[in-house]
Amino acid sequence: MNSMNLRTLLFLLCTLAFLPEAGAEPVHFKALVIDQAYARATAPGQEVGVVYLTVENTGKTAEHLLSASSPAARSVTLHSTRMSGGMSSMHHQAAFDIPAGATLELHPSGLHLMLEGLKAPLVEGKEIVVRLTFGQSGAVDVPVPVRGLGAEPDMGSMHHDRMR
């Protein structure tokens, strides 16, 4: 390999190292845009997993995420994480509200989808499907890439602990 090809290869590798982690394309469904979906990889034998994503409501009326399901798990429940006295605790939620013009953000230390009774470990680099059921819009299947154990969302577009 000549020095020009080697320099070009090194440049490309360095450039790729700083690109954001690839994820699934946004899912456009009626007045909703589901984006930044990912699940964290799990260890063998682990029975629960977690999914994070955003849901933008571009419509003129409020929407509600009522439930979720996945072939990857026995059940999927809506949860919130709350801090109290330095301890975090999870709480089941009946639904997640998405006001008109707002974005629902599911992220670590906040709202999330809990995959319970995993049928197999979630493996980094693989993909699962999660069906989201909304009150007005109905159900949509969302591809969810599995990221490494310490994966975090794309921080450039997230606004933690609030809807925008």
Overview of the structural elements:
- The chain is mostly beta strands and 164 residues long.
- It has a single domain (23-153), classed as Immunoglobulin-like (Sandwich), CATH 2.60.40.
- Helix content is 9%, strand content 48%.
- The protein contains 1 helix and 11 strands, in the order H-E-E-E-E-E-E-E-E-E-E-E.
- It has one helix spanning 3-17; strands at residues 27-29, 32-40, 48-57, 63-69, 73-84, 87-92, 96-98, 103-106, 112-118, 127-134, 138-147.
- Strands 1, 2, 3, 4, 5, 6, 7, 8, 9, 10 and 11 form an 11-stranded mixed β-sheet that branches.
- Strand 10 and strand 11 (138-147) form a beta hairpin.
Largest sheet geometry: 11 strands, mixed
Average pLDDT: 84
What is the correct CATH architecture?
Answer: Sandwich
Please report which band the strand proportion falls in: under 5%, 5-15%, 15-25%, 25-35%, 35-45% or over 45%.
over 45%
- Output the CATH homologous superfamily: PCu(A)C copper chaperone
CATH class: Mainly Beta
**What is the CATH topology classification name?**
Immunoglobulin-like
Cα distance, first to last residue? 51 Å
Rounded radius of gyration (Å): 18 Å
Using DSSP, what is the number of strands? 11
Low-confidence stretches: 4-21, 155-164
Shape descriptor: globular
Number of domains: 1
Secondary-structure class:
mainly beta
* Number of helical segments with 4 or more residues: 1
